[in-house]
Amino acid sequence: MDVLQTDVVIVGAGGAGLRAAIAVAEADPALSVTLISKVYPMRSHTVAAEGGAAGVIKENDSLENHFNDTIGGSDWLADQDAVEFFVEQAPKELTRLEHWGCPWSRDPDGRVAVRPFGGMKIERTWFAADKSGFHILHTLFQTSMKYPSIKRLDEYYTTDLLLEDGRAVGVLSHEMRSGKPVVVLGKAVILCTGGAGRVFPFTTNGAIKTGDGMAMAYRAGVPLQDMEFVQYHPTGLPGTGILISEAARGEGGILVNKDGYRYLQDYGMGPADPWPRKKAMELGPRDRLSQSFWQEQQKGRTIQSKWGDVVHLDLRHLGEKKINERLPFIRDLAKSYVGVDVVTAPIPVRPVIHYTMGGIASDITAGTPLPGLFCAGETACVSINGANRLGSNSLAELLVFGKVAGEAAARLARSVPAPSEASALAQAKAHRARAEALVDGSRGTEAVATIRRDMMATMESGCGIYRTQEGLEQTCTTLRDLRRRYRDVKISDRSWVFNTDLTQALELGAMLEIAETMALSALLRTESRGAHQRLDHPQRDDAGFLTHSMAWRQGDEPPRIDYKPVTITKSQPAARVYGGAAS
Amino acid sequence: MSNTTTVTLEVLRYDPERDQEPRFQSFEVPYDEDWVVLDALNWIKDNADSSLTYRWSCHMAVCGSCGMVVNGEEKLTCKAFLRDYLGRGPIRVEPLRNFPIERDLVVDMEGFMAKLESVKPWIIREEEKPVEDGEYIQLPKQLKRFKHHTLCINCLLCYSACPQVGLNPGFIGPAALALAHRYNLDSRDQGRHERQEVTGSADGVWECTFVSACSEVCPKHVEPGGAIQEQKIANSVDWFLDHLIPGRSNAGRTKE
Ligand SMILES: Cc1cc2nc3c(=O)[nH]c(=O)nc-3n(C[C@H](O)[C@H](O)[C@H](O)COP(=O)(O)OP(=O)(O)OC[C@H]3O[C@@H](n4cnc5c(N)ncnc54)[C@H](O)[C@@H]3O)c2cc1C
Ligand code: FES
């Protein structure tokens, strides 16, 4: 098996991984960085982000405002030391990206423009029309090419972390075009592998968002934190799940039910001003908006469409000029995928799985409980998002903590010796046997697509916007059974060249474990907080649950869940206030 | 066509470990008026033949993975609707042209990646401005000069459509040259001269014969053809001035 020695190993070349790689290169050009990704960097799902990235820059705003919005948005489950650091660093990171060429939209005077976003008291979201993630990703990728110390392994599917004396010392990857295994050893490892929205059937997440890195860390003994918190975005296109960015509401779009009524005013989000009021109505937080959709659906006030129940997002009053300037991609997407020109007709939308607040247990240092292992981006749970992420905080998060992870890994790499090959190779061979058994077809009866479909169905039915004990128990039981069936999974592709049957099977293995942590954490959290709403426990319970859940892997058995305190510095838990009362 | 229930896809198959040469395989796929060609491929993979190999991720025409040739035309398959191909026989799906086939619908894009890097697609400045000093001022009209050239998703449809790429595989090609132009036009950049060494070389802008097939197939209206023509003009002017004004070529150049 080929072995590659490097200083810092980074898995994932989306926004977080690229930012981390550049941070290592800038911290010390003498350190070698190996940046591994299962797709070419510009295919990473950061590319799909539309609305923008939050950072305080305007004179009417303050770091304290951003802090308070984020903590309230998180339903007090975010760690306040991390949020404080995050809001301080975000504007610097966004400015740095400006210096690297990101084509941010501008005010008439040439300064960077900002737009309002949900749950934010003041407009502070930097945007590049409605392709912010696309521009951030391409700017980072193109900038990364100027550092000779960054070597990429594009289209290398990574399956396992390798350990030595209780430290992370590398990974096992598979070159997709040849199927060949390669062991990449380093003095520090950073996981930037993105979220896991694909455990659900209806999602804004691309095919690659299968939570591989979370599963890798979990299998290596690292706990997954706050996995019960999964964000539904209130406005996805029915059928495909394609996102209609919150920017559409930031610019003034309104949501109406079948009577043309702005129903959010019935759920504590009013008054229904004709103009966009911050932290009210359509600019409320995502958890509240998605929950309101469900309530309307119960009341029979949603709209029946050929794709099922929807509500209408109406942008017509913004006018064609503003729509073309600020929301051209939205116009194009709605026209192509649901046949609606937003200039002349409202867009059918419904809530859609969007973001994993939980992830690999981490903190303000981007470190994890496993020495040598760092993480950043959606795969990490720092946690600045707590029970509900505010829109436009995660693009800023991946920059801030991508940099922290890169710098911390660089420091470590300068202080520890290179790992030895022997023990890593032995582990790699054992892991590789799994892939070999699948490809040589010596075993297995269960099809990947069938198990995956059943997993998605049970996640949607039990782990949706509103949850109950009964539904969650059913989902846990089904997932356990699916994990058992997965041990007998088979693939039919016998070639080693670009075997996507194999990668899909391995991704499914990761997703099943992640799904189980989500469902069990949700079952045990007998309260309602942020994106986790229990019909049978409708109140927030600070005495019992102002804590992060931590899921620890227990082999073939379901995980063990324990809890870790939330770091509270200056904002004591209080009621979340939106609508008129918030201004 | 509302009574259509299935469509036939003829998909190119090629596994270098097994096949001497590519072949076509037909699949009958359920028809749904909302489905794109990529949905049909996914249906095949999940229900008929899980070894079918192709790239995709975002399913919203922005990651650039799913470019293929559909009935002879370069398309993003996540935005090519089955309903637009009805009544014209089977739908033929092939990998992009002008690239080696890795397997089935997956092409080898390493050459493209090297070309992209060769044009130095990053901001080049003599002096970096400290982050503490805030953003560069860039007026909306300055942004507008290059904004459309920033929209390239690297889907490679233009390389597949370009006759020159077919004739000279070394040609830097539309997307990479448009990207060079994007940085050249950015008011924050000072690297035009450095890039010209590459874009003005034998494999650079002069290779382009302005057929404009690139701009026609581009799903994002990046207008690579126009970007290349503008660079030809800029390079000629620079060449002319450099010869008229001794020492000019060494001076750092900024834009207005
Ligand atoms: C449609 C959409 C719109 C959004 N809009 C916004 C917005 O406007 N503002 C905002 O703040 N946030 C937004 N978000 C959220 C935000 O975009 C993501 O959270 C963020 O981009 C994730 O970045 P990342 O770098 O962590 O992961 P990704 O960009 O997903 O990258 C993951 C990387 O890991 C690699 N990888 C994964 N598994 C493996 C493996 N097994 N082996 C090798 N490599 C692997 C992948 O190849 C990829 O390079 C949006 C999300 C979506 C889905
Ligand atoms: S799948 Fe991303 S562009 Fe088609």
UniProtKB/TrEMBL annotation, chain A:
Q: Which residues form the active site?
A: 286
Name one cellular component (GO) term: plasma membrane
InterPro entries (UniProt xref): FAD-dep_OxRdtase_2_FAD-bd, FAD/NAD-bd_sf, FRD_SDH_FAD_BS, Fum_R/Succ_DH_flav-like_C_sf, Fum_Rdtase/Succ_DH_flav-like_C, Fum_red_fp, SdhA/FrdA/AprA, Succ_DH/fumarate_Rdtase_cat_sf
Instruction: Establish whether keyword Cell membrane is in the entry.
Output: yes
List UniProt keywords, sorted A-Z: Cell membrane, Electron transport, FAD, Flavoprotein, Membrane, Nucleotide-binding, Oxidoreductase, Transport
Location within or outside the cell: Cell inner membrane
What are the recorded Gene Ontology BP terms? anaerobic respiration; electron transport chain
Describe the location of the FAD-dependent oxidoreductase 2 FAD-binding domain by residue ranges.
Answer: 7-395
Membrane topology listed for this record: Peripheral membrane protein
- Catalyses which reaction? a quinone + succinate = fumarate + a quinol; a menaquinone + succinate = a menaquinol + fumarate
What is the required cofactor set for this protein?
FAD
EC number assigned by the record = 1.3.5.1
GO function term, MF aspect, one: succinate dehydrogenase (quinone) activity
- The answer, when asked if rRNA-binding is one of the entry's keywords, is no
Residues of the Fumarate reductase/succinate dehydrogenase flavoprotein-like C-terminal domain: 452-578
- Top-level EC class: oxidoreductase
Entry-linked Pfam families: FAD_binding_2 (PF00890), Succ_DH_flav_C (PF02910)
Family that this chain belongs to = Belongs to the FAD-dependent oxidoreductase 2 family. FRD/SDH subfamily.
Q: What is the protein's quaternary organization? A: Part of an enzyme complex containing four subunits: a flavoprotein (FrdA), an iron-sulfur protein (FrdB), and two hydrophobic anchor proteins (FrdC and FrdD).
Under NCBIfam families, the record lists: fum_red_Fp (TIGR01176), PRK09231.1 (NF006686), sdhA_frdA_Gneg (TIGR01812)
Name of the molecule in the record: Fumarate reductase flavoprotein subunit
UniProtKB/TrEMBL annotation, chain B:
Which branch of life, at top level? Answer: Bacteria
Cited InterPro entries? 2Fe-2S_ferredoxin-like_sf, 2Fe-2S_ferredoxin-type, 2Fe2S_fd_BS, 4Fe4S_Fe-S-bd, 4Fe4S_Fe_S_CS, Beta-grasp_dom_sf, Helical_ferredxn, SDH/FRD_Iron-Sulfur
Q: Which GO terms describe its biological process?
A: respiratory electron transport chain; tricarboxylic acid cycle
- What is a GO molecular function of this protein? succinate dehydrogenase (quinone) activity
Q: Which keywords belong to this entry?
A: 2Fe-2S, 3Fe-4S, 4Fe-4S, Iron, Iron-sulfur, Metal-binding, Oxidoreductase, Tricarboxylic acid cycle
Q: Which cofactor does it need?
A: [3Fe-4S] cluster; [2Fe-2S] cluster; [4Fe-4S] cluster
Instruction: Locate the transmembrane regions by residue number.
Output: none
List each copy of the 2Fe-2S ferredoxin-type domain by range. 5-99
Q: Which SUPFAM superfamilies match?
A: 2Fe-2S ferredoxin-like, alpha-helical ferredoxin
Alphabetical list of Pfam families matching this protein: Fer2_3, Fer4_10
The family database entries (PANTHER family) matched by this protein are listed as: SUCCINATE DEHYDROGENASE [UBIQUINONE] IRON-SULFUR SUBUNIT, MITOCHONDRIAL, SUCCINATE DEHYDROGENASE IRON-SULFUR PROTEIN
| Oligomer status and interactors | Part of an enzyme complex containing four subunits: a flavoprotein, an iron-sulfur, cytochrome b-556, and a hydrophobic anchor protein.
The entry assigns this protein to a family as follows: Belongs to the succinate dehydrogenase/fumarate reductase iron-sulfur protein family.
Q: Which NCBIfam families match?
A: dhsB, PRK05950.1, PRK12385.1
- Protein's recorded name: Succinate dehydrogenase iron-sulfur subunit
